[in-house]
Specification:
The complex is a heterodimer of chains A (269) and B (398). Chain A is mainly alpha-helical and 269 residues long. Chain A is built from 13 helices and no strands. The radius of gyration of chain A is 19 Å and the shape is globular. With 398 residues, chain B is an alpha/beta fold. In chain B, the strands form four sheets. A six-stranded mixed sheet of chain B has the order 5-6-7-3-8-9, with helices on both faces. In chain B, strands 12, 14, 15, 17, 18 and 19 form a six-stranded mixed sheet that branches. Chain B is globular, with a radius of gyration of 27 Å. The chains are: A mainly alpha (269), B alpha/beta (398). The interface between A and B is medium-sized, with 30 and 33 residues.
């Protein structure tokens, strides 16, 4: 893995990742403002619907301070997770033209899809900041910790992408399975509801979900310290270690299986 | 590995596993996992060769011979099943031009994208950018989207990037014939420059003319194995013979059996000695030996057929030998062809005998399409005073 990282930072591979991300960015936004607005529309529309439903119909978010920003931040991170893992899954199969005809390090394709999603996340974070300002969310020094947890999310997405892209080369129905998993995760993670309303029996189980840990930690450092984090559920730092370990294990396993199979991708696609 | 070796391939084999039923989904895999039925396809078997530094090395072979697989293994795209591949230096494979080109991006953006895919850094691409654009003659179009380019312009751009990507070893697959004739000439000059500059080139092609023109050495691959490594001339001959052999399998008609006249043999002579190679300015003599049982009026025909089966020219006896009626027993006919009539290339010399009266009926024939091997001659350009595809005759005056 260390060697792979070293090779990843070889200038030519770095250039390749850069060009892939830049061209993806250009293709997505096509030099037009509208392009960007379209990509924002999905999380914003989802936000609008959920906001109306959960503050005016079912009042689950009522008790959470700064619920709009809280909800939007969660949705933006969730959008990143969906985008990074879905495009990551497709990164090898979708670039069959490159994989079959030229010898490039395959992981650059995965890295570039995750980075593309990250670029999008950064743009969406601007909207979150605007909502925070409108909602009078106090800016606290703890915000500097947010990139650490977002970094954890990026690593998690990479690990999942490595795993899924390898499986997707062999099994074409992985995409359907992943759709179902995503749907489950959407409701299993405290995206729209607060972790605090989860029943006592389930709360420990629900909070070791890495997504729950990341979401709550980012919300806690950015929006309100009242956001219940995994650490608080377990009343110890160790509680946070468990989801982080899960992320680490999935990432190492994903990378390992990717490394083992990547040499044969050209023949199997 | 010695310093003067750029690429070494040792006992390299490649098998493809072809499952009888491809399991593309987890569902199929779960249902059929107890039936592991597959075949092994030996795409390459025990390939062994070395390419020296600075050499222009050709790889030729028919479709399905394993040539493309070999190229992909050298290019690092496929992994060999057995054996060893050592590359001394950086290598750029051009399996296809313009890999990763995106029609929605501008020419400039595509240069950077394609360059990065070919293994160049951003800085390196910046350095060669102007040369690439100038070579492609597309200065005015760099900010246009690629989809607005004509196909010729796209190919020119792709070729320019590929050629400017300065790597130690170039792997080129049949990308010679691109663009209009002016651009082609430019490409050929580039190939000559590359050859002169001492870069190693591995060149995969069907074009025996190009092999003879550029390559120092060539390898012919057939049925997954190395058939021959040698001088481009020899390889080109071997290749054409192999192709003719392929044509034989296509031939369906059987040789007619007539008790009256039986063709025995065709000989091709140069100054009364059997020969298979002629200079364009040499006379060709063809003799046909045959046996006659019952004397009848017949006409003979000698023809030249290109190695791909195309009929070039033929001459019959109806003018020179009117109402020819050979006597019983072994006979020989001779036909002389003056120099300068047959262009450069390789040909089969065929003979046939027909009835004299109309409608003419085939009595016997010696032709590869009828399952008979016939002499094969090669016409070479070998005169100091003229050159080209055929023997050009003319007269200078002051």
């Amino acid at each position: 893995m260390i060697n792979a990282l070293k090779r990843g930072f070889k200038p030519s591979n770095r250039s390749l990742i850069r060009e892939l991300v830049v061209s993806d960015f250009k293709l997505r936004y096509q030099g037009s403002v509208l392009g960007y607005i379209w990509s924002l529309l999905r999380p914003l529309l989802l936000f609008g619907v959920l906001y109306v439903v959960f503050t005016h119909v079912i009042r689950v978010g009522g008790k959470v301070p700064h619920y709009p920003s809280y909800l939007l931040l969660g949705l933006v991170l969730w959008t990143f997770f969906v985008e990074a893992t879905s495009s990551g899954m497709n990164a090898i199969t979708g670039r069959g033209d490159l994989v079959r005809k030229v010898s490039i390090p395959k992981y650059t394709l995965i890295l570039s899809t995750t980075l593309s999603a990250l670029v999008n996340l950064c743009l969406n974070m601007v909207i979150v900041f605007i909502f925070m300002i409108i909602g009078h969310v106090p800016f606290r020094i703890t915000m500097v910790l947010a990139p650490v947890y977002i970094g954890e999310l990026v690593v998690f997405c990479l690990g999942i992408s490595f795993l899924l892209s390898t499986l997707f080369v062999k099994f074409k129905d992985i995409s359907h399975i992943w759709d179902v998993v995503l749907q489950t995760l959407f409701y299993a993670s405290p995206l729209i509801y607060s972790l605090a309303i989860v029943p006592k029996k389930l709360i420990k189980f629900a909070s070791i979900n890495p997504l729950a840990q990341i979401l709550q930690d980012v919300r806690s450092v950015m929006i309100t310290p009242q956001a219940l984090t995994t650490k608080e559920v377990f009343h110890s730092q160790l509680g946070r270690i468990v989801p982080m370990l899960i992320v680490l294990i999935i990432t190492i396993f994903g990378f390992w299986i990717f490394r083992r199979n990547s040499k044969n991708f050209a023949e199997e696609i | 590995m010695a310093d003067d070796i750029a690429l070494s391939v040792k006992h390299l084999s490649k098998d493809f596993i072809l499952p009888h039923e491809r399991k593309n989904t987890l569902k199929e895999w779960a249902i059929h996992f107890h039936k592991p039925s597959f075949e092994k396809l030996h795409a390459l078997h025990d390939i062994d060769f070395e390419v020296k530094r600075g050499e222009f090395f050709g790889i030729v072979g028919r479709n399905g011979s394993g040539k493309s697989t070999l190229l992909k293994i050298i290019g690092g795209i496929y992994q060999p099943t057995k054996g060893e591949l050592t590359v001394n230096g950086t290598l750029t494979p051009f399996i296809e031009l313009g890999i990763g080109f995106n029609p929605e991006l501008t020419g400039r953006e595509n240069i950077f994208l394609n360059g990065a895919i070919l293994g160049l850094t951003h800085k390196e691409i910046k350095n060669i950018y102007n040369e690439v654009v100038a070579f492609a003659e597309l200065e005015k179009f760099m900010d246009q989207k690629l989809k607005n380019y004509s196909s010729g312009m796209q190919v020119r751009l792709a070729f320019s990037i590929a050629i400017q990507a300065h790597n130690d070893i170039l792997l080129i697959d049949e990308v010679l014939a691109v663009g209009d004739s002016a651009f082609q000439r430019k490409c050929f000059n580039v190939f000559k420059d590359i050859k002169r500059s001492g870069r190693t080139v591995i060149f995969v092609t069907h074009d025996m003319g190009a092999v003879q023109e550029y390559c120092d050495r060539a390898l012919m691959i057939q049925d997954s194995e190395v058939l021959m490594i040698g001088k481009p001339r020899e390889i080109a001959l071997k290749y054409e013979i192999a192709n003719a052999g392929f044509a034989k399998e296509v031939g369906t008609e059987g040789r007619p059996i007539d008790p009256n006249i039986h063709l025995e043999r065709i000989k091709v002579l140069l100054n009364d000695k059997p020969a298979d190679t002629f200079a364009l300015d040499e006379d060709i003599t063809v003799t046909v030996e045959f046996t006659v049982n019952q004397p009848t009026e017949v006409q003979f025909n000698v023809s030249f057929v290109k190695s791909d089966g195309t009929f070039l020219a033929g001459l019959n006896t109806t003018d020179s030998l009117k109402n020819y009626k050979p006597a019983a027993g072994k006979q020989t006919l001779t036909c002389k062809f003056k120099s300068g009539q047959i262009p450069k290339g390789a040909y089969f010399v065929n003979a046939a005998v027909y009835t004299y009266d109309k409608p003419i009926v085939l009595i016997d024939i010696l032709d590869i399409n009828y399952g008979v091997e016939t002499p094969r001659i090669t016409m070479l350009e070998s005169s100091l005073i003229q050159s080209g595809e055929f023997y050009i005759q003319g007269q200078w005056t002051k």
